[in-house]
Each structure stands twice: as structure tokens, then as C-alpha cells.
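Try this one yourself first.
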């Protein structure tokens, strides 16, 4: 029999397990067989993967689609994602009326997304908590996010007036009742921030390091304790998203216990590669802030040992013009979805010898498991044929103009990373070939409806 596609003689990366040379057969959009090296079978299309890694397509657990150009982001940002080997993503969806707005937002994604996609609901009001169980069932969403940094005045400035510890605890109680439910939390004690921020402003500080000083790592750690403790009392698994400080990770290690609900940890590529001392000025403003080299190194140890289970981008596709005029007024966040693989290969595999199967687990298998996506995240018969093919000797130079993103800059611009994505494949369709998007990709992305 003739297969649809064969990825021939590559180094196949089995997340969390190891690397083995062989060929992967694809039929009907799924993996149909894995062949030992040099055993060949017929196929309509063969891609020679000699000396290349065949990895499961990345699933970015943390993106903000719609923060750039709401009408165009599904188109531009998912195609940017493909260039980085990303075949699936989760985007945070916030709306006063989730019941009325989620359907149209999903349809907008289905009309133009080139990657598969799912949602995490942003819980910002009592109404959201009350409706969560029904919304979860209706839209297949098992994960939510509570923004502790939108308490009080910070939240009011964004139109959120109900974010407090009662909302957090209510969300945890609701999350505990959702099958597969997990509550992600932005941990940063916004009530203490002014104590640091006002003197820095008064002193005329206007540098990236000041952004770290106005919200030091322990303000994240303090919130992590509250979230983990309340999660235990409510019986709800929690996820500390975009962890930035190694002190927070040390606390999680102490709080984890086999008899308690899990405390998951996600970090993002910028906390694994950039610091408050990086020479990138206002472009590096993000919440939580970039920290020290010791934090970067400590978080990498967490990735290596599995204490950090997922790695995302926190992709925010705004324009460069919003990153000023000073550190205080610049917008927070930056794009990064296409840089996940180059950054983790360069900083993790190349510099720190973190096994590639560990990196693959943190960017595919663990994401699929945490967010209840069966059939993705592994290279095994029956799983979706989603792949990132990587040339480990190649190089990625970050040139913003080379990506279709709405965003026109990158905190990594000018940097070079070892490792280059050559092909990206979504359910058997080759969408990136030798580092370039194939022309006229329709809208192959599907909505990830989760119903564990
Ligand atoms: Zn956040």
C-alpha cells in the first residue's frame, strides 16, 4: 500500500522518552506507522529528514490572539506560528458576556486560522464564575485564567472591578467541578507594587531594570502561595502561568504533595533567555517582568527536572510604536510565538544540554495532557500527524519582516539562534517547506473542543 506521506530517516523525538532514528508514515492526517531506519515503503510524497529532528508540532499554551489586529490576527499570527513549528495554540479569551461572544470568536478563528486553536476563558467577574460550568460544557473549554494583577486600581483602569480573592476562590471551586478543569493564575501582588514603583518614578528611572524593581519576584511568589493553598482547599488543580522567578519555583517544590491537587507550572521563552539587563530597552517590558540571569538559570533547571511542565510564548502581537515613550507608558508584552523552538533549542539543548525529548514534552505532550487534547502531542500510531522538522545545525536569525505577524518588532531581533525549522506539518498537510510558508494556505486550523 502507498502512504500519503513519509518523513524519511529522521531522528524521531518521542516526548519524555528519547530519540530514535526511523521514518514516520502518515495516512488520512494521522500517523499510521513508524518504520525502523532504512526500511522504506511507498508514499505519494517523501520528505528526506536525514540529520533532522522530527518533533511533534508545538502547541503554544499561552497566546493573546486579538491583541494586535482583532480582525486579522487569526490569519497573521497562526501563519507566523507555523514558521516556528507551532501547529496548535491556546489563546486567552476575555469578554463580559462569554456566552454570547465565544461562538463568533471561534467562528472567526475557524474562518482563517492556519493552526489548530483552543481557548482559555479569562475569569474577571462574578458572572463568569456563576456561568463557568455551563460555558465549559458548551464550548469545550476546561481551562481558565484569573488575573490577580487586575485587582484594585490596576484592574479598574482596565475596566475590571470584581477581581479579588473571593473571585479567585470562586473560580477554584467552579474549576474543581469541571471535568479536567485547571485554573491558571497570573501571580503578581499588584497592591504592593506602588510601594516600589512610586520612588522609582520619582527618581526619574526609565530603564528596563526598573520594571523588575517595581514588581520584584517575591510579589509573584507571595501570590503563588495563596493560589496553591486555596487550590488545595478548593480541591482544584492550579497552573502558575508565565512563571518568572526561581523563588516561586522553589515554593512550588515545597508545596507539591501526592495527596494534594496538582500545582502545574508554565514558563515562557523570555524568562528562559532574556533578563532585566538585556540590551533591549522598552521592548523588554512584560508582566511579570524579566528577572536576573540566576532566575533564567534556575528556571532552566526546573525545565530539565520536569518541575516546569509547559513552555509558551505569551505572544502579544502589538506594534513597536506601543513600546514607549518610556518604560512606564510602554505596553506590556511582545510577540514570540515563532521563536519558541529556536530559543529552547539554543538556550536549552545547545547551551545547557537539556534533552530534546524533555523540550518536546514541555511544548507538546504536556500541553496536550494538561488541556485535555487527546490525539496530539505524541509521535505514535493514531495520533494527529502534526510535526515540526528541525535542522539542529541550521540557524534562525530573528528578522521581524520575515514573519506575517501584525507585530513589526521582536525583543529577539538581530539575535541568532542555533536550530532552524524546515517543515511544519498539520494533520498531514505540509504548510511550511524549507523554512517558507507554502502559498495560498486556506484555513486548515480546527477548533480544539475539549470534553474529557
Ligand atoms: Zn498573565
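Now uncover the answer:
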Amino acid at each position: 500500500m502507498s502512504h500519503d506521506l513519509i518523513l524519511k530517516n529522521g531522528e524521531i523525538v518521542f516526548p519524555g522518552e528519547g530519540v530514535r532514528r526511523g521514518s514516520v508514515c502518515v495516512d488520512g492526517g494521522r500517523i499510521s506507522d513508524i518504520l525502523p531506519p532504512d526500511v522504506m515503503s511507498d508514499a505519494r510524497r517523501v520528505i528526506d529528514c536525514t540529520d533532522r529532528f522530527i518533533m511533534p508540532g508545538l502547541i503554544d499554551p499561552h497566546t493573546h490572539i486579538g491583541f494586535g489586529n482583532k480582525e486579522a490576527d487569526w490569519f497573521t499570527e497562526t501563519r507566523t506560528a507555523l514558521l516556528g513549528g507551532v501547529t496548535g495554540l491556546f489563546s486567552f479569551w476575555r469578554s463580559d458576556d462569554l456566552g454570547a461572544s465565544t461562538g463568533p470568536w471561534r467562528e472567526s478563528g475557524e474562518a482563517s486560522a492556519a493552526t489548530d486553536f483552543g481557548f482559555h476563558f479569562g475569569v474577571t467577574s462574578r458572572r463568569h464564575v456563576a456561568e463557568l460550568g455551563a460555558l465549559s460544557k458548551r464550548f469545550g473549554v476546561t481551562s481558565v485564567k484569573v488575573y490577580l494583577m487586575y485587582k484594585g486600581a490596576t484592574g479598574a483602569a482596565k475596566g475590571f472591578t470584581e477581581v479579588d480573592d473571593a473571585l479567585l476562590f470562586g473560580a477554584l471551586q467552579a474549576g474543581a467541578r469541571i471535568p479536567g478543569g485547571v485554573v491558571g493564575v497570573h501571580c503578581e501582588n499588584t497592591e504592593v507594587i506602588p510601594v516600589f514603583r512610586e520612588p522609582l518614578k520619582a527618581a526619574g528611572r526609565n530603564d528596563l531594570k526598573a520594571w523588575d524593581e517595581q514588581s520584584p519576584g517575591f510579589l509573584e511568589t507571595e501570590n503563588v502561595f495563596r493560589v496553591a493553598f486555596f487550590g488545595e482547599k478548593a480541591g482544584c488543580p492550579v497552573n502558575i502561568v508565565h512563571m518568572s522567578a526561581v523563588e516561586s519555583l522553589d515554593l512550588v517544590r515545597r508545596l507539591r504533595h501526592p495527596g494534594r491537587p496538582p500545582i502545574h507550572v508554565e514558563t515562557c521563552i523570555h524568562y528562559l533567555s532574556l533578563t532585566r539587563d538585556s540590551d533591549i530597552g522598552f521592548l523588554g517590558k512584560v508582566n511579570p517582568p524579566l528577572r536576573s540571569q540566576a532566575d533564567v538559570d534556575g528556571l532552566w533547571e526546573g525545565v530539565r527536572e520536569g518541575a516546569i511542565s509547559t513552555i509558551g510564548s505569551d505572544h502579544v502581537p502589538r506594534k513597536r510604536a506601543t513600546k514607549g515613550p518610556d518604560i512606564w507608558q510602554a505596553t506590556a508584552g511582545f510577540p514570540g510565538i515563532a521563536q519558541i523552538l529556536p530559543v529552547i533549542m539554543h538556550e536549552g539543548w545547545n547551551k545547557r544540554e537539556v534533552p530534546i525529548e524533555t523540550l518536546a514534552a514541555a511544548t507538546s505532550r504536556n500541553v496536550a495532557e494538561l488541556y485535555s487534547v487527546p490525539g496530539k502531542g505524541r509521535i505514535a500510531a493514531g495520533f494527529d500527524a502534526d510535526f515540526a522538522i528541525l535542522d539542529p545545525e541550521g540557524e534562525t536569525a530573528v528578522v521581524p519582516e520575515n514573519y506575517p505577524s501584525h507585530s513589526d518588532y521582536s525583543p529577539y531581533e538581530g539575535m541568532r539562534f542555533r536550530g532552524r525549522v524546515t517543515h511544519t506539518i498539520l494533520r498531514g498537510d505540509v504548510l511550511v517547506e524549507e523554512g517558507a510558508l507554502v502559498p495560498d494556505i486556506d484555513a486548515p486550523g480546527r477548533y480544539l473542543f475539549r470534553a474529557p
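Discussion: Residues 186, 241-242 surround zinc ion (CB under 6 Å). The chain has twelve helices and 17 strands.
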